[in-house]
Design brief:
Elements lengths: L6 H8 L4 E2 L2 E2 H22 L6 H27 L5 H14 L3 H33 L5 E6 L2 E6 L8 E4 L9 E5 L2 E3 L2 H4 L5 E3 L5 H6 L9 E2 L10 E5 L7 H12 L5 H25 L1 H4 L4 H15 L2 H20 L2 E3 L2 H7 L4 E4 L1 H5 L5 E7 L5 H12 L5 H14 L8 E6 L3 E6 L2 E6 L14 H12 L3 E7 L2 E9 L6 H10 L4 E5 L4 H11 L3 E3 L4 H12 L4 E5 L5 H6 L2 E5 L5 H6 L2 E3 L6 H35 L4 H19 L8
Helix pairs in contact: 1-5, 2-3, 2-5, 3-4, 3-5, 4-5, 4-11, 5-8, 5-12, 5-24, 9-11, 9-12, 11-23, 11-24, 12-23, 12-24, 13-23, 15-16, 18-23, 23-24
Length: 661
């Protein structure tokens, strides 16, 4: 009957843009239906001398305007072999006409069409909040070609184009800064409230080859707003593949995804709707056992059909899901579907990766400790030569800081890099093997154990919360390099807010040494930390936490993908720079800012509360109306209550668009 109350799609796409007298045509027709209904009623009651055909003509006009779109959709549903609320209302209105109750049938169609139009408008508000994402990027861009600046449609931009962005203009494409400095308002994409300073990249060739490795102060996004400085941007993605476009596409694809509550109401309707149809058929024959005319039994049956239609129930959850996802997207939080929106509000535990999630993800060399007989420069030269072949964050830190410490001078060249997953790397240098990695890598899988001095250096640095990297060249332990990552700004405050929202248990899970993990955990206020974990260990930890309740895994969406997949909700940080994170996570925080996480959890809990309210109102109205119509309540009052409850749940859901956390 109404198991797919799809007003939004049909009305917005079929005739949502058409207008009459300056208002949407569906609303205009509903108003005309009300005007002609009122005219017919006035003539019938106030002008006794008027011919009988005159009020009837007004009522027929009210039928036409009120039933036009209802009839059209009923025909479409019939062709699709579906029986929905539109068909039901037509049956009831036709029944009223057969009984000679033209005024009541016209009232039914007027109220239904008016409710339909207002509901479409209200749902359109939620949908427009999402559609607005795709409209943030400008239509045209100023490109520098052959020494000339020309304006072209953004669709004509290609990777490698240089785009001129004037002060206070919106950026037309994703890319990196090659000239100029400015502060860019990234709130439309990442939700960051403070503009981000941007500067040119040091090496354009490197930036082109590794766009995913761009720093926050180099990378720019389409749809963001430039500050007071002019910039030249090299395009890294065409318009249809920009971060903004991907977010808009993903949100549009998931906005109507069925949440747990929606699936529950669907199951309820599959049982409830046939039961109501059976009841309506039985009431048609009430005149056989009750002393009343068939006309009265027929009327009662039509009234029950109107009253029992679960129209409000069918729209109760989708309207809240649409509003919630739209509100989240406006603040740089991508929630991929109704299931993720509801599940986020049920969490009792969260597991966090350390590097890049709770910390800045940019470790620095703090200690270079060679063993006796080895110079610091030799230790650094070997480490830099090997780690230059790797793209691991710790390797990049060693290369960056090690090169700075070494200064100018000759460099060694290594080759044949082999990754030993979760433990370290192996490479060749001067005809010998170099091993760089965790202490646990040594003494296993045929690798000789560490010497006593190297082991002592490791323990010393771990006690100080350092991440350690042991360097061995051939059979010699060269020494240990200590690195430290700083906690992310706002991490402690964000975790405190999560605890206040009811997240009872928060755990850090890291591949780093337990001592290092515990040191960072203490700084950010976490309950516990687990270190020395391989990727499968992280999955096992999530599974264990999941036995105690609903658990989320918060990480980068790439290295933590297996753990995120095994959690109730996978949450990716800094997804604006990662296509993989956008695709794999259930919830993606577009900015590298943990403070958006309490907002997302709070929004989800508010959405769950509104969904419950909507379901209770929907079921309550049906529970009251069905017995009331059986006992004699007319079709008119039943339609008023029916459409009123539908509008109530939609406008209640729209409150999510104003959620501030």
């Amino acid at each position: 009957m109404a198991d797919d109350h799809n007003h939004t799609d049909k009305h917005n796409h079929a005739h949502g843009d058409a207008r009459l007298f300056g208002v949407p045509i569906e609303l205009a027709f509903a108003i005309l239906s009300g005007v002609t209904l009122a005219a017919g009623f006035a003539v019938e009651k106030l002008v006794p001398s008027a011919p009988d055909w005159l009020p009837l003509a007004f009522y027929v006009a009210a039928y036409f305007f009120g039933g036009f779109f209802t009839l059209r959709e009923a025909v479409q549903n019939a062709l699709a072999r579906q029986f929905k609320i539109d068909s039901l209302m037509l049956v009831a209105a036709t029944g009223a006409a057969i009984l000679g109750e033209f005024a009541e049938g016209a009232l039914l169609l007027f109220l239904f069409s008016l409710g339909h139009a207002l509901e479409s408008y209200a749902m359109g508000r939620a949908k427009r909040a999402i559609d607005a994402l795709a409209e943030l990027a400008p239509d045209r861009a100023t490109v520098l070609r052959d020494g000339q600046s020309i304006e072209v449609p953004v669709e004509e931009l290609v990777v490698g184009d240089v785009v001129l962005v004037r002060p206070n203009e919106r950026l037309a494409a994703d890319g990196f800064v090659i000239k100029g400095r400015s502060a860019i308002d990234q709130a439309p994409v990442t939700g960051e409230s403070i503009p981000v300073d941007k500067a040119p990249v040091a090496d354009r060739a490197v930036a082109r080859a590794q766009p995913q490795a761009l720093k926050d102060d180099e990378r720019v996004f389409a749809g963001t707003i430039n500050g007071s400085g002019a910039l030249e941007i090299e395009v890294t993605r065409i318009a249809s593949e920009s971060t903004l476009s991907k977010v808009a596409e993903l949100v549009a694809a998931v906005e109507t995804g069925r949440s747990p509550t929606q699936r529950m109401t669907d199951r309820f309707e599959r049982i409830f709707v046939p039961a109501v149809l059976v009841l309506a058929v039985l009431l048609l024959f009430a005149w056989v056992v009750v002393d009343e005319p068939f006309r009265d039994s027929f009327y009662r049956s039509m009234a029950v059909l109107v009253a029992a239609s679960p129209c409000a129930l069918a729209i109760a959850t989708p309207s809240a899901v649409l509003s919630g996802i739209g509100r989240a997207a406006r603040s740089g939080v991508l929630i991929k579907g109704g299931a993720a929106l509801e599940d986020l509000g049920t969490l009792t535990a969260m597991a966090f990766d350390k590097t890049g999630t709770l910390t800045e993800g940019e470790p620095r060399i703090t200690d270079v400790l060679p063993v006796d007989g080895v110079e610091e420069s030799e230790l650094l030269q070997v480490a830099v030569a090997v780690e230059a072949l790797s793209d691991h964050p710790l390797a990049q830190a060693v290369v960056r800081d090690g090169t700075a410490r070494l200064g100018d001078g000759p460099r060694l060249e290594a080759g044949g890099l082999e990754s030993l997953t979760g433990r370290g790397v192996r490479a060749g240098l001067d005809g010998e093997t170099v091993l760089i990695g965790k202490a646990e890598m040594f003494g296993a899988d045929g690798i000789a154990q560490l010497g006593e001095q190297a082991s002592a250096l490791i323990e010393r640095m771990r006690s100080e919360g350092r991440t350690t990297m042991v360097v061995r060249h051939g059979t010699r332990d060269l020494g240990v390099i200590g690195l430290m990552d700083t906690p992310r700004e706002g991490a402690r405050e964000a975790l405190a807010e999560l605890r206040a929202l009811g997240i009872e248990r928060m755990v850090m899970i890291s591949g780093d040494h337990t001592g290092v993990a515990e040191a960072i955990a203490r700084e950010v206020g976490l309950d516990e930390a687990r270190g020395d974990l391989m990727p499968q260990d992280k999955v096992d930890t999530i599974a264990a936490l999941g036995k105690e309740g609903m658990v989320a895994m918060v990480g980068d969406g790439v290295n933590d993908a297996p753990a995120m997949a095994s959690a109730t909700v996978g949450i990716a940080m800094g997804a604006a720079g990662s296509d993989v994170a956008l695709e794999t996570a259930d919830v993606a925080l577009m900015a590298d800012d943990l403070r958006h996480l309490p907002f997302a959890v709070g929004l989800s809990r508010k959405a769950r509360s509104i969904i419950r309210q909507n379901v209770y109102v929907s079921l309550g109205v049906v529970a009251l109306l069905v017995p009331a119509t059986i006992l004699g309540l007319g079709i008119g009052p039943a339609v008023i209550a029916h459409e009123g409850s539908t509008l109530l749940v939609v406008f209640n859901a729209l409150r999510l668009l104003r959620y501030e956390g």
